[in-house]
Amino acid sequence: MKRSLIAMALAASMPFAANAAEGVTYNYLQAGYQATSGDVDADGYDVNGSVAFHPNFHVFGGFGSQEIDNTNLDIDDYRIGVGYNLEIAPRTDLLARVAYQKLDAGRVLGQELDFDGWSTEVGVRGLLARNFDGYALVGYEDYDGGIDGDFYGRLGANVAFNANWGLNGDVKFNGDVTEWFIGPRFTW
């Protein structure tokens, strides 16, 4: 009876014992240029990072600041979250993430404009070539304070120049608004 229980427990835990796909890492730090176009046009910078604390889990976070064109209004955004990755092929991960987010525009016309929210996304990330990986995600984000929640799509790629340095590009499509990022990435 004890052997049967142990065997069932091991069998049940096997899906949680997988590692990240071969060549895909969740340990990085990147910074670069960020821009938004659509209902609002803005540009600025963004700093992001991720650290794997388990073969299948990582924490991630970031900070960005953009100035809306033809104004002196800056919008800062913060995010922190946790992600889960599960190898579904030797070079491909299923990726799921959830995050707390905050938008802060400061004081506008005597009113403080800051919004707390959350996002969740799911998709795939895989090594497409020895020095090139990409990801495709769909997500949903929602903020308090009258900002309606919305679905979005995200596409991105990383080109590695060597074992540690590379370039990341990311595009997020959210209705009439498109956000994009490009910048160097340090991976370990």
Per CATH, what is the topology?
A: Porin
Topology as H/E string? Answer: HEEEEEEEEEE
Q: Any idea of the CATH class?
A: Mainly Beta
Tell me the radius of gyration.
Answer: 19 Å
Q: What's the mean pLDDT score? A: 89
Number of domains: 1
How many strand units?
Answer: 10
- What is the CA-CA span between the terminal residues? 45 Å
Query: What is the second-level CATH architecture?
Result: Beta Barrel
**Estimated structural class:** mainly beta
Strand order of the largest sheet: 1-2-3-4-5-6-7-8-9-10
Shape call: globular
Strand content: over 45%
Give the helix level as a range of percent.
under 10%
Give an account of the 3D structure.
It is built from 1 helix and 10 strands, in the order αββββββββββ. By secondary structure, it is mainly beta. It has a single domain (20-187), classed as Porin. Strands 1-2-3-4-5-6-7-8-9-10 form a 10-stranded antiparallel barrel. A hairpin with a 2-residue loop joins strand 9 (165-174) and strand 10 (177-187). The protein is globular and about 55 Å long. The model is unreliable at 5-18 (pLDDT under 50).
